[in-house]
Amino acid sequence: MELFLFLFWYFILIVGASIISGLLNTVKKFTYYAIIPVFLNISLVAFILLFQNSFKTFAHTLAYGVLIGGIMQFCVAYIGCVKEGFRIRIYLPSKKIFKPEVIATFKKMFPAMIAGGLSQINTLLDLILGSMVASGVSYLYFVDRIFYLPTASIGTAIGIVVLPMLSAATGKKNNKEIKAIQTESINISSLLVLPVAFALIFSPEVFVSVIFERGNFTHENTMIVANCLRILGFALPFVVYMKIFSSIFFSHENTKTPMYVALVCAFLNAVTSIILMQF
């Protein structure tokens, strides 16, 4: 319960930092959003190296590191917001929350929240099913660490950058500009992600051995993780494209289509995972 309180305050801080970063993204100030995760890593590493023996347990050390990291992340986002000329004020709930504009925003936001939640449910389901196999959860962890690196650095990054550009073009109803932005984003992402996908398909063991193979992580473990990555290599381009396509739908204020796609994907993931575990 004590550790949960630390995570509760971190949740509030990171939600605030994310909202502020989203505001900065709309004016094409992406640097703050990009560097925010770095401060959590700095805080965790500092607490592990300097204060590992200063708290009751190692979990408490990490909890304090997460909390301080959250404070740093929020401060960086807030400083960036002030620097760009925005002022953040917190108001108590009032009748203004029922204004048509606010209600319309929540209606558009709700499907996006469901789609994001389904992604986490997918991850949780994978962990539950992985726990039924010897060392399954550990293998999934190692696979995810490598697979989500290009997914985030290419798909998420491009999706974030093109969203305000597409929104502006959509607001002006400039179909020519919209098509140009969409085409360029797909071309750039393809140029970046296809070589990574080929590398994961044809030589995943190289990445796994260099990053993880040491200590208790044996060559046999490397080959198991590599075989999983080889399969995911075929999916990598489509995961990246999906993030860009989601931004295209969001720019047209269509948050329901990504939600429906996420629902179908969650269902297929659950069914195919359970079926394939029988073999």
Number of strands: 0
In N-to-C order, the SSE pattern is: HHHHHHHHH
State the separation between the terminal residues, measured CA to CA: 40 Å
Shape: globular
Q: What structural class should be given to the helix and strand makeup? A: mainly alpha
Strand percent estimate: under 5%
Poorly predicted runs: none
Number of helices: 9
What is the typical, i.e. mean, pLDDT? Answer: 86
Q: What is the CA-atom radius of gyration, in angstroms?
A: 21 Å
The helix content is over 70%
User: Mind describing the biggest β-sheet?
Assistant: none
What's the short story on this structure?
The protein is an all-alpha fold and 279 residues long. It has nine helices and no strands. Helix content is 82%, strand content 0%.
